[in-house]
């Protein structure tokens, strides 16, 4: 989804919410939080408030009329009921796109995983809101004492002892699953070359071969940018041609929190990007009025590629190559190789545009296993 469309959808969600929830979202914007985070949180708040109305727990014409006083009357039992609703609702899987750890899972297992992840996201969003309301102070007139007093917006936080209800898999299991989807060492280069020239040899229909030839330069460039920089899918989708700097070997991206950053690009992959840029205009009927770097063509009109299309494309090529992966796992591949070279989590987090090093533990896990393998084979 493009940055502009995401912002538009978020603003529509924002308008549907009560003023005290809007105040919290404005607070998150100021921190700042990414538009994607704001959009996901706003959807979760709308879902919770809609449930409160449907169950008759609060009395209002619509969710915009729900007040803080209604939240004051909530208790832990109501939140437990809401969690039960989330767990039982068949619609709870429709928004979850992250199938990164589910490559080999059955459809039923994937749905169960999506369900748990989505419940976790819902409760996390509510815990964040309630914590803010319980800590944010307001001034109000107290008739009993005849003066103004300072009090929290919400007098008690009933979410404090509510469990997230997260995914069952332990951290170690999750890391092992991630490892199986990484492209490391020469395998990454082999994969890019396979998309560039080898995949066509696996096709039998003329239609499929024509489609592949039409897009292979672009598709290879997408993989080259993922593996050459480790940027996120959303960052790649929103990249414009003007963001590329060949001389400095970097691409300007908008990180989480809407901060601009220069993501360095490995020179080994830059030629694929240059070849695409040279053919981009003729391949997709693009002119200077189309800023997006990666394009598709609809009714002979160039338009920015969306994240879902890129995910499907990578799924198709990587499955044919023999190791199914995702854009996020390609990012992990870059992080793992960077940690191998540096042994420095701070450097890795800076390369990947992360705010801290907590998200990089997967790389130490992989390197630790490699050390064990070296020691085991040292004298054999």
Automatic annotation (TrEMBL):
<dbReference type="GO" id="GO:0006310">
    <property type="term" value="P:DNA recombination"/>
</dbReference>
<keyword id="KW-0233">DNA recombination</keyword>
<protein>
    <recommendedName>
        <fullName>Tyrosine recombinase XerS</fullName>
    </recommendedName>
</protein>
<dbReference type="InterPro" id="IPR002104">
    <property type="entry name" value="Integrase_catalytic"/>
</dbReference>
<keyword id="KW-0131">Cell cycle</keyword>
<dbReference type="GO" id="GO:0007059">
    <property type="term" value="P:chromosome segregation"/>
</dbReference>
<dbReference type="GO" id="GO:0003677">
    <property type="term" value="F:DNA binding"/>
</dbReference>
<dbReference type="InterPro" id="IPR044068">
    <property type="entry name" value="CB"/>
</dbReference>
<keyword id="KW-0159">Chromosome partition</keyword>
<dbReference type="InterPro" id="IPR010998">
    <property type="entry name" value="Integrase_recombinase_N"/>
</dbReference>
<feature type="domain" description="Tyr recombinase">
    <location>
        <begin position="177"/>
        <end position="376"/>
    </location>
</feature>
<keyword id="KW-0963">Cytoplasm</keyword>
<keyword id="KW-0229">DNA integration</keyword>
<dbReference type="GO" id="GO:0051301">
    <property type="term" value="P:cell division"/>
</dbReference>
<dbReference type="InterPro" id="IPR013762">
    <property type="entry name" value="Integrase-like_cat_sf"/>
</dbReference>
<dbReference type="InterPro" id="IPR050090">
    <property type="entry name" value="Tyrosine_recombinase_XerCD"/>
</dbReference>
<dbReference type="Pfam" id="PF00589">
    <property type="entry name" value="Phage_integrase"/>
</dbReference>
<dbReference type="GO" id="GO:0005737">
    <property type="term" value="C:cytoplasm"/>
</dbReference>
<dbReference type="GO" id="GO:0015074">
    <property type="term" value="P:DNA integration"/>
</dbReference>
<keyword id="KW-0238">DNA-binding</keyword>
<feature type="domain" description="Core-binding (CB)">
    <location>
        <begin position="15"/>
        <end position="134"/>
    </location>
</feature>
<dbReference type="InterPro" id="IPR011010">
    <property type="entry name" value="DNA_brk_join_enz"/>
</dbReference>
<keyword id="KW-0132">Cell division</keyword>
């Amino acid at each position: 989804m493009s940055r502009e469309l995401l912002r538009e959808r978020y603003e529509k969600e924002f308008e549907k919410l009560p003023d005290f929830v809007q105040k919290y979202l404005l607070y998150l914007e100021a921190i700042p939080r990414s538009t994607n985070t704001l959009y996901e949180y706003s959807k979760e708040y709308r879902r919770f408030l809609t449930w409160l109305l449907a169950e008759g727990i609060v009395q209002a014409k619509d969710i915009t009329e729900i007040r803080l006083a209604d939240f004051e009357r909530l208790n832990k039992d109501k939140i437990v009921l809401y969690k039960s609703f989330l767990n039982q609702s068949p619609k709870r899987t429709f928004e979850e796109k992250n199938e990164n750890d589910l490559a080999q899972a059955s459809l039923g297992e994937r749905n169960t995983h999506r369900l748990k992840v989505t419940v976790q996201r819902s409760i996390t969003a509510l815990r964040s809101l309630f914590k803010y309301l319980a800590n944010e102070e307001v001034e109000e007139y107290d008739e009993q004492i005849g003066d103004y007093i300072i009090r929290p917006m919400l007098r008690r936080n009933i979410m404090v002892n509510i469990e997230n209800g997260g995914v069952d898999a332990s951290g170690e299991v999750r890391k092992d699953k991630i490892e199986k989807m990484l492209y490391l060492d020469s395998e990454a280069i082999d994969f890019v070359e396979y998309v560039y020239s080898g995949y066509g040899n696996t096709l039998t229909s003329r239609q499929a071969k024509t489609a592949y030839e039409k897009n292979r330069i672009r598709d290879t460039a997408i993989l080259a940018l993922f593996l050459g920089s480790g940027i996120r899918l959303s960052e790649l989708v929103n990249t414009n041609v003007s963001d590329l700097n060949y001389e400095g070997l970097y691409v300007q991206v908008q990180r989480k929190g809407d901060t601009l950053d220069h993501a360095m690009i490995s020179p080994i992959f830059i030629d694929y990007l240059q070849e695409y840029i040279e053919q981009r205009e003729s391949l997709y009927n693009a002119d200077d009025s189309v800023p997006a770097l990666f394009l598709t063509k609809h009714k002979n009109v160039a338009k920015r590629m969306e994240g879902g299309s890129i995910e499907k494309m990578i799924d198709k090529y990587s499955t044919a190559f023999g190791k199914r992966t995702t854009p996020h796992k390609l990012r992990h591949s870059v992080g793992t190789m960077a940690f191998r070279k540096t042994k420095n989590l701070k450097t890795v987090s800076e390369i990947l545009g992360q705010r801290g090093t907590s998200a990089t533990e997967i790389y130490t896990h992989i390197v630790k296993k490699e050390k064990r393998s070296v020691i085991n084979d040292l004298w054999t």
